[in-house]
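SAMPLE LOG
Freezer: B-3
Tube label: C17
Construct: single chain, 302 aa
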Amino acid sequence: MKIAIVGSFDYHFECVPFLLEVFKDENVRIYTLKKKDKYNDLIEFKKMYNFDVFLDGISKEIIESNDLTIKLTSNDPCLEDERIVSIQHWCNKVVKKTISDRILSLTPYINKNSWLNVYKTGNPEVYYTFPAYNPLKTIKKVEEKVVTFIGYYLNKQFDKDILDFIKLNEDYTFNFIVRGEKSRNYPVLKGIKNVNCYNNIEGEKVVELLKSARYILSKRHINYDRFSGQLGLSVSYEKPLLVDKRTMDVYKLPGISFEKKYMELGKLSEIDDKKYDELWNQVKKFKTDAIKKNIEIFKDFI
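STRUCTURE (predicted):
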């Protein structure tokens, strides 16, 4: 079977591997444009899965020459057709409606009702898929005391709560893989001995940092209307989440939760090995179940 993954934007490449996981035994072709994969994510994904990349342009011919075409972003104007399956990242009037009613959602916040509340017309088939995948053949439990944060975050969002949490857990190293500040500057983090800040780094380094983490720290300032990528990465790399309770409950994620502030989590060193192993096994099961569910969902599109 021939599967096409299409995207002309210079973002949302992080959605590619969960699709590659679903179609790992099929002939997958990724169609994008030159210089769009600015962090070389596709090069890193090549180490995990077999697929071909085409940079010669995006046209209707792609739909005709493949059995299924998936668009990485629903409002990407590169290709429109009723047969396309599109990933809807956000339901909002600023996001142009795709002409296809075949919609993939990465979050429970986007469903048929929320979609119709915004776009009013159509009869969408909205399928919730949690973007989990297997980046490595074997993932070992990490003993080192490392917490990793990844995502969009501004310097001003590093407030007293998160700084106090870092200080409370001075025996842990905190790696912040961040983007958001145009200056690429996060002065509030400078001089903190147990903090490393990585800004706009390439995929290979991201994988290295994720592999070395014991926990993934979720955003405290998380959005409740769209998916946040660190959730999928934590599950895929089998790292227990430090996450707000609302997000944990909505996605039914395993992890350690806080209501409002990181400081509620306390000292991470007080989480014993038995509790950690329990969390780790829950994450692995969640990943296995999510991948199986995704495979079943895509059968409806073929």
